[in-house]
Amino acid sequence: MTLRKHFAGFAVTALAAAIPAVAMADVSIYGRAHVSVDFLDDGADYSETNLSSNNSRLGFKGDHEINPNLTAFFQIEQQIDFGTDNGSSFNTRDTFVGLKGNFGSARMGRFDSPFKAARGPANLFGDQVGDMRNLTRVGNARFDERYDNTLEYTTPDMNGFFAKLGYSVQESTVNEDDTDDSVISGSLNYAGDALEAALAYEAADEDTGRGERDGIRAAAAYKITDGFKLVGFYQTVDYTNPAATQAVQDALTSDTYGLGGELKVGSATALKAMWLTRDSDADNFDSDMLAVGIEHKLDKAVRVYANYAMVENDENVALTPWSQARTANPAGALGEDATGFSVGLRYDF
């Protein structure tokens, strides 16, 4: 009994000593629970109802002021799949450490490239059925990547303008051969009251058999009125891989572009629509996607929505409007039109 009392007293004392230290650290826990019920139809043999976890996540972030002009910061973020065990590690999403001050900010780790982040202003259906990545991120020429071993510099804000420059050394082992792959990615961005826009470039020089890729991306959102926002998007991608056939290289070289809009029909409710087309260099390899939806914010943290999206495919392609950023991602059928209807709940904490 005496030993237990001494141990209990020691535990309370240790906890009391630890609490001030924890309180002094400016660390916060955040996350997103995003789940939907979907009815997905590939136009051929698959027509099923699914439960999908859509880029749900849990993260820790914090900063520490070294002096008034210099702050250290960090983030650790993990994908959390509600409804399934994906066996992933604890740093699958943006995880980094860096310094920021009057010079801007610099960070290193694993996180979204500037090219990937540049789609933000125009992606009205992010992490949902109808996400534009279903057309912009195709095969080995895909962009929208989160690269390992990345260094990135962001300039200070200059009247709404800022720039990002990232460089990644994708060191890896393929078939027991060491490879030294590199990616450079940069963007020029503007964020104002009415206009948000980004122009980005990315080039990957890789020798792992995936091929060399370079692309240009532009995205913009403009508030015509307080209740109506118009968005536009354009991307051109060139893919070169001597190990692949010319037909494959042509199929992965493409232009993707489209328009969309968001109309507020109340203080917390909005209607959304987006049309996007992918024009490939290969014959009969084009796709069009149309997405429409309604979203209602129950409060600042919780929203519900219903979306419908469809992809029309040429005979040599099998894209779907649901394959990206979701656990429910059955394959499409070659040359068939794929449709999806989704009802979702998103809670940011």
Q: Could you characterize the architecture of this molecule?
A:
This protein is mainly beta. It is 11% helix and 55% strand. It has 4 helices and 17 strands. The chain has a 16-stranded antiparallel beta barrel. It is globular, with a radius of gyration of 23 Å.
- The span between the termini is 43 Å
What is the rounded Rg? 23 Å
- Strand order, main sheet: write it out: 1-3-4-5-6-7-8-9-10-11-12-13-14-15-16-17
Total helical segments: 4
Write the H/E string, N to C: HEEEEEEHHEEEEEEHEEEEE
Backbone shape: globular
- Helix content bin: 10-25%
Largest sheet: 16 strands, antiparallel, barrel
Low-confidence parts, pLDDT < 50 over ≥5 residues?
1-24
Total strands: the figure is 17
Structural class per helix/strand content? mainly beta
**What fraction of the residues are assigned to beta strands by DSSP?**
over 45%
What is the residue-averaged pLDDT? Answer: 88
Give a short synopsis of this structure.
The protein has 349 residues and is mostly beta strands. It has helices at 2-24, 114-117, 133-136, 246-252, and strands at residues 26-41, 47-53, 57-67, 70-79, 95-101, 104-112, 146-154, 161-174, 177-191, 195-205, 212-225, 228-240, 254-264, 269-280, 287-297, 302-313, 338-348.
